[in-house]
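FORM 12-B: Structure-to-Sequence Request
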């Protein structure tokens, strides 16, 4: 599991970089790039949630949905999954982006989550955590 307790701002098209790592299944994670690497070829299941606040600075504060994508970044660039808030958020509103994906990967493939919203967003601790994702090799 990788999770975070901070309130970092994630710019548009930038990687989300949770900083607390508790992985024990051979998967590695680099908090400076937000990339994780799988150790073996196989099928993986990933579950995630990110508690986010819109940083929309549009003067009209038009409500927008916030979204993230899970991308394979090495050896090529592939979209694995997309998820978004289930409602449109006005300026400074908070929502949760959650999802899961089942994907095939080869040993040493790298992946990361990216802010694909039309605005920056901020991770927001709810109780203690602001984000979490866990990865399991299923075969």
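FORM 12-B RESPONSE
SEQUENCE OUT:
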């Amino acid at each position: 599991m990788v999770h975070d307790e901070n309130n970092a701002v994630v710019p548009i098209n930038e990687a989300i970089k949770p900083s607390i790592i508790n992985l024990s299944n051979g998967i590695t994670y680099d908090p400076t790039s937000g990339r994780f690497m799988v150790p073996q070829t196989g099928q993986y299941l990933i579950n995630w949630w990110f508690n986010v606040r819109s940083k929309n600075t549009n003067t009209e504060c038009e409500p927008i949905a916030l979204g993230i994508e899970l991308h394979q970044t090495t050896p090529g660039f592939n979209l694995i999954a997309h998820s978004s808030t289930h409602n449109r958020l006005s300026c400074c509103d908070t929502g949760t982006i959650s999802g899961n994906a089942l994907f095939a990967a080869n040993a040493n493939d790298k992946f990361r989550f990216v802010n694909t919203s039309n605005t920056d967003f901020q991770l927001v601790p709810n109780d203690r955590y602001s984000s979490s994702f866990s990865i399991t090799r299923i075969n």
